[in-house]
Amino acid sequence: AGKCHAPDYIEFAEITIDKVMVGSKAQYECKPGYQRIVGESDFIVCKNDSEFIHWTMRTTICKRTKQGWAQSKTQALNFVSSEHSRIFMSPAPLTRAFNSCYCGMPMPVEYATAKVTEYAVGQELHYKCLSGYDTRPPTSGIRTCKEENGKIFWTSLHLQCTNDS
């Protein structure tokens, strides 16, 4: 089945994702001062295993580097945040397959952050301008991963988040 890659960010906007469709893929990235453990995959997939829909599990994929012992906590905190855009994700437990065809966002893994890198067709992303950057309507919208005539794409979104007067 086809997938959409992560969409481009819209400046001064946030994306809210509370569920991810089966077939989507996420990647963990080690925080500053940590590196991936040799032999550990950093990818997980939202799967439907007959009775449960869930992310393939990862427990530990990153270990501290020698240089990491000297890095400050501030650097690790800044790694997750972005100056001009944000993504809000809510982790969710296993879901019974007959109730839903979605995973929650990937569960936290020690010393790593996760981001969804491929979305299944049908996935919706909810966009909203950050507070103070919503002077031009529309100030929110939805993009959907679609497949038409063999092409897979995100629907367009005409969101202009600015604080221009």
Provide structural commentary.
- There is one protein chain.
- The protein is mostly beta strands.
- It has one domain (3-154).
- Helix content is 5%, strand content 42%.
- It has one helix and 15 strands, in the order E-E-E-E-E-E-E-E-H-E-E-E-E-E-E-E.
- It has one helix at 73-80, and strands at 3-5, 13-17, 20-21, 25-30, 34-36, 43-49, 52-55, 62-64, 85-89, 95-96, 102-103, 112-120, 124-129, 140-148, 151-154.
- The strands form four sheets. A six-stranded antiparallel beta sheet has the order 1-12-4-6-7-10, with no helix packed on it.
- Residues 70-99 have low confidence and may be disordered.
Characteristic key phrases:
single chain; 165 residues; mainly beta; six-stranded antiparallel beta sheet
Distance between the termini: 45 Å
Helicity range of the residues?
A: under 10%
**Spatial shape:** globular
Order of neighbouring strands in the sheet with most strands: 1-12-4-6-7-10
The number of helices is 1
- List the uncertain runs: 70-99
How many domains make up the coordinates?
A: 1
What's the story with the biggest beta sheet?
6 strands, antiparallel
| Category by helix and strand content | mainly beta
The radius of gyration over CA amounts to 18 Å
The count of strands amounts to: 15
Helix-strand pattern, N to C? EEEEEEEEHEEEEEEE
